[in-house]
């Protein structure tokens, strides 16, 4: 990263395709008999896990020059896999497929890497069990996940946590259940599953915080366009806002309201941000331009905005440190159950730059940085892509050539991150 220090970052860029949308496109195309295409997908470790698993179920998936072609024999004709299904680091693959495999009535065992091995899966097996799915977990909570065929009945489910992964798993299972599946959320989580199911011809009703879906519907093949991932754009947005002279235009990025909470935060902080929606059919898409700002204020985030920016909180902690007064995050306990305990990782690692935090069980207060003073140059990335990229953004803004133990997990969501930064850098 040394080559990136003491530069400004300017120009226009497209970030890789949205991770959540790519996973869903691979799964839904695999349910639809015939050929679907996925344009500008995310090609990363996490999405490879999903496409490999769909291939193991008998779907043909090819990828040529940024276009994936999926040919499926149809949901009824997917086959029992011969081997264990390996989900790597991907919580979305693991959780969504629990619902899908239970619905398909396929005998399968899923397991992932050491991070997946300690992430709670009972939040998904609980409601699926109520539907009649036969799922067993290690210690009742963790992978490996063993799924056996079972007849499913629709349920009406009140979500105890805001989780699009849990909601999506129930909806996938609901496609194959007898009756109408109803999910009520307390706070709206990302709605890509609902939007894409409609696109694939499913009759699904969304009314406020309630989603309803009748079982027994089949999906029709479609051509899906994947917008850029705002969660990847977030790192460039924060870098532009806090490094002198920077001005970055991010093109064709998802502006889905259930994901775009970071834009509200930039506005709350008086950051220099311009947003132009270019299309609002299905998934909203547009351009985001962020320029360096001398006068960032602060943010206070809690309640229903949290699911709209859950993955951006690590890098927002960096932004908060460049504000003029303390910034606050509350109601974000879910961060403790991500690829790593992200509240711990954010506080432990950013503290090494001299940033002061007050920690809560469900968030933190981040104080404005007064003096950048490295107390330790050895940083831990916890094999967590978003923690590693957060550290790189902070290191660049601080002008410090920090040492991160193992940055390889960047490839989980944004394999070309460092190359994109090289492309944007300019002498200052
Ligand atoms: C995701 C949902 C979120 C998010 C994750 C991707 C999805 O998790 O943190 O990166 O694609 O559904 P939860 O739904 O568990 O909050």
Secondary structure blueprint with pairings:
Layout: E1 7-13, H1 19-31, E2 34-39, H2 45-56, E3 60-64, E4 67-72, E5 85-88, H3 91-104, E6 108-112, H4 122-130, E7 134-138, E8 142-148, E9 156-158, H5 164-175, E10 180-184, H6 192-199, E11 204-207, E12 210-214, E13 223-225, H7 230-242, E14 247-254, H8 261-268, E15 272-279, E16 285-291, E17 300-301, H9 313-321, E18 327-329, H10 342-350, E19 357-360, E20 363-366, E21 378-379, H11 385-398, E22 403-404, H12 417-424, E23 425-427
Parallel strand pairs: 1-14, 2-13, 5-6, 9-10, 17-18, 21-22
Antiparallel strand pairs: 1-23, 2-4, 3-4, 6-8, 7-8, 10-12, 11-12, 14-16, 15-16, 18-20, 19-20
Helix pairs in contact: 1-2, 1-6, 3-5, 4-5, 7-9, 7-11, 10-11
The chain binds shikimate-3-phosphate.
Which ligands does the model contain, each kind named once? shikimate-3-phosphate
Whole-number count of domains: 2
Assembly state (oligomeric): single chain
DSSP helix count?
A: 12
Bulk shape: globular
Q: Mean pLDDT, rounded to whole units? A: 97
DSSP strand count? 23
Cα radius of gyration in angstroms: 21 Å
Q: What class do helices, strands and sheet pairing give? A: alpha/beta
Distance between the termini: 17 Å
Question: Considering DSSP H and I runs of 4 or more, what fraction of the residues is helical?
Answer: 25-40%
Task: Provide the CATH topology of the largest domain.
Answer: UDP-n-acetylglucosamine1-carboxyvinyl-transferase, Chain
Strand content: 25-35%
So, the CATH homologous superfamily of the largest domain?
A: Enolpyruvate transferase domain
* Low-confidence runs: none
CATH architecture of the largest domain: Alpha-beta prism
Main β-sheet, spatial strand arrangement: 15-16-14-1-23
Largest sheet: 5 strands, mixed
GO molecular function: 3-phosphoshikimate 1-carboxyvinyltransferase activity
Pfam families: EPSP_synthase
Pathway: Metabolic intermediate biosynthesis; chorismate biosynthesis; chorismate from D-erythrose 4-phosphate and phosphoenolpyruvate: step 6/7
EC number: 2.5.1.19
């Amino acid at each position: 990263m040394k080559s990136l220090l003491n530069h400004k970052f300017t120009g226009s860029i497209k970030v890789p395709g949205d991770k959540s949308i790519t996973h869903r496109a691979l799964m839904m195309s695999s349910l639809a008999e015939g050929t679907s295409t996925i344009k500008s997908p995310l090609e990363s470790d996490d999405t490879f896990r999903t496409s490999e698993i769909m291939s193991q179920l008998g779907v043909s998936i090819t990828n040529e020059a940024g276009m994936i072609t999926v040919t499926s024999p149809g949901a009824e004709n997917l086959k029992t896999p011969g081997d264990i299904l390996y989900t790597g680091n991907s919580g979305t693959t693991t959780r969504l497929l629990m619902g899908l495999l239970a619905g398909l009535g396929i005998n399968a065992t899923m397991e992932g890497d050491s991070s997946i091995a300690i992430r709670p899966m009972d939040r998904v097996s609980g409601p699926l069990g109520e539907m009649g799915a036969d799922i067993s977990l290690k210690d009742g909570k963790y992978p490996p996940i063993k799924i056996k065929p079972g007849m499913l009945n629709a349920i009406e489910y009140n979500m105890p946590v805001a989780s699009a992964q849990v909601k999506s798993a129930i909806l996938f299972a609901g496609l194959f259940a007898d009756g109408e599946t109803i999910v009520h959320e307390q706070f709206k989580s990302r709605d890509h599953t609902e939007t894409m199911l409609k696109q694939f011809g499913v009759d699904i009703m969304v009314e406020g915080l309630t989603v309803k879906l009748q079982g027994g519907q089949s999906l029709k093949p479609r051509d899906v366009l994947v917008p850029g991932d705002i969660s990847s754009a977030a790192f460039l947005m924060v870098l532009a806002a806090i490094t002198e002279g920077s001005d970055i235009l991010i093109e064709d990025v998802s502006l889905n309201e259930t994901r775009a909470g970071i834009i509200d935060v930039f506005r709350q902080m008086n950051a220099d941000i311009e947003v132009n929606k270019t299309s609002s059919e299905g998934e909203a898409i547009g351009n985001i331009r962020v320029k360096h700002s001398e006068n960032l204020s602060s943010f206070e985030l809690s309640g229903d905005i949290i699911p709209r920016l859950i993955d951006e909180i690590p890098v927002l902690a960096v932004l908060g440190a460049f504000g003029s007064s303390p910034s606050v995050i509350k109601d974000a306990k879910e961060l403790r159950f991500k690829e790593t305990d992200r509240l711990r990782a954010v506080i432990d690692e950013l503290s090494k730059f001299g940033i002061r935090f007050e920690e809560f069980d469900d968030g933190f207060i981040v104080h404005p940085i007064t003096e950048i003073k490295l107390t330790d140059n050895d940083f831990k990335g916890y094999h967590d892509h978003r923690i590693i990229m957060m550290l790189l953004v902070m290191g660049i803004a601080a002008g410090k050539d920090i040492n991160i133990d193992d940055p390889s997990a960047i490839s989980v969501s944004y394999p070309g991150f460092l190359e994109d930064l090289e492309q944007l850098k300019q002498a200052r």
